[in-house]
Amino acid sequence: MNNNILLLIIALGLSDYCYAGETKIYVWKDKNGVLVFSDTPHSGAKEVKLTSQNLTMPATNTDILNEQTQPQKTVFNITISSPEHNQTIHENTGTVYVTSQITPRFESGFTIQLFIDGKANGPASNDSTFAVKNVQRGEHSLQLKLFNNKNKIIALSEPCIFFMRRKGLALGN
């Protein structure tokens, strides 16, 4: 009984193989000049003769499909554009305007916090320009921190020293 089943399976397999060899393929050009292949004959079609039933493609290296590309981590840089380092500001109201530059471009969700003399000058904001008011006479340091959208520091500016010069009340200096 097992031999009969085995013979039946072999016969069916060979019949499919032979049938595939008998399948005819036709080719013709349609009205737009496009080459059309089909197993159904068409008027003006020519039969394509296959020289081999063993049509194989060469092996292709698929290792590149498995490689995990790591996104490159962007390195941000923040600098104080104004005031310049060691600049003296002559402003009787004690107001200093601090501007910053971020490279590459400032992204949505990022914030900047200004520190003057090591103390935060208000909360972090999405503005790159700050107005600091009522700065006392003398030497002061500025520094900026750039935060990403997860509130993590991703860049820190170099300290910038400036000097505030205000007219004194006594003796007009």
What features would you highlight for this structure?
173 residues, alpha+beta, Immunoglobulin-like, 2 domains, 6-stranded mixed beta sheet, 3-stranded antiparallel beta sheet, 2 helices, DUF4124 domain-containing protein, DUF4124
Describe the structure.
This protein has 173 residues and is of the alpha+beta class. The chain folds into two domains: 50 residues, no CATH class; 89 residues, Immunoglobulins (Immunoglobulin-like, Sandwich). 14% of the residues lie in helices and 36% in strands. The strands form three sheets. Strands 5, 7, 8, 10, 11 and 12 form a six-stranded mixed beta sheet that branches. The chain has a three-stranded antiparallel beta sheet with strand order 2-1-3, with no helix packed on it. The protein has a three-stranded antiparallel beta sheet with strand order 4-6-9, with no helix packed on it.
